[in-house]
Amino acid sequence: MPRANLAHLPNLITLARIALVPVLILFLKDQDYAAGLIVFVIAGASDALDGYLAKRLNVQSRLGAILDPVADKLLLVSAYVMLTVLGHIPFWLVLVVVFRDLLIVGGYMLYTSHAGPVKMRPSILSKLNTLMQIALATLVLAQQAAGLDWPLTIHVLVVAVLITTVVSGAHYLWSWMIMKEIEPAHSGENRHD
Questions:
Q1: How far apart are CA 135 and CA 142, in angstroms?
Q2: Residue closest to 191 by CA, chosen among 56, 100, 97, 77
């Protein structure tokens, strides 16, 4: 396949991940946890694949840099909201997770409206938070799909998600407001920084 045809492949994979979000919601609405787990895992694998291809093919783009985190947040927030509605994740945890994401997006939009576009670089704390969120959703889905009961493990992950969510949100605020560690965006912005 010619390189020009491959240039859009990472973004197409990201768009496919976004398209999986309503599928996940429908499976969870019907309490089909096995199918929901499969969709969630496929979506997670597509996240790794699109990033790998963007770097490997050197086709990183501004559109990809925007679409990728949007796809990730849509997937995680949808999973968390549905698992909360179904009574598997505490409501207060979803509030904390969504509030942190709104804080980051709101801060980004506010800053860019005054100072222009900036690069969004996820911190190590943010990556750890995302990993904990994914681990919790995956374990809850697996537990429900297999009919198992792991209350202690789920509780530990709930606490880990709470701590990493609060700490990473505070870290972003500290970096932006106190340390002013904000880097202006350039035309060659990477897809996954």
A1: 10
A2: 56
Return d(Cα 43, Cα 14) in angstroms, integer.
9
CA 130, 131, 132, 135 torsion-angle sign: positive
pTM score: 0.83
Tokens representing 55 are: 């770097």
Alpha carbons 118 and 189: distance in angstroms, whole number: 10
Residues 6+ apart with CB under 8 A from 92: none
Centre a 10 Å sphere on the Cβ of residue 117 and count the other Cβ atoms it contains. 14
CA distance 117 to 33: 40
Distance CA(60)–CA(51), nearest Å, equals 9
Q: Are 114 and 180 in contact, with CB atoms under 8 Å apart? A: no
State both tokens at 174: 């500290």
CA angle, residues 139, 142, 147, in degrees to nearest 5: 120
Which tens digit of pLDDT belongs to each residue from 123-175? 899 889 999 999 999 999 999 999 999 999 999 999 999 999 999 988 887 77
Q: 102 is written with which tokens?
A: 């709104």
